[in-house]
Amino acid sequence: MEIKADRWNFDHRCMSPRDLNTCLFILEQGNMPKEGEVNDEPTEMELYGTGAEVPLIELAALYAHGVLSKDGGRLSDSVDPNVYDGLDNVGEAFV
For the whole model, what pTM was predicted? Predict the structure, then answer.
């Protein structure tokens, strides 16, 4: 029997550079990258984009890990839903 942790602990710095760059590509382009469109070089997120990228990637991770679903879901107490205020393109980027 698998027991899931009550605490959500997302840290984009624990992602491989390729996985992070793939997520950023999807956010920018709206589709999965083709061969050679994503590299393995680390991205300095503090200097990248608008600052909304990490919360969007975290939201996608919440969905991918089954914390959220299309039918709703309950966020763990460790997730701050206010981080997602004003992120209008959430559904477009990762669906």
Answer: 0.69
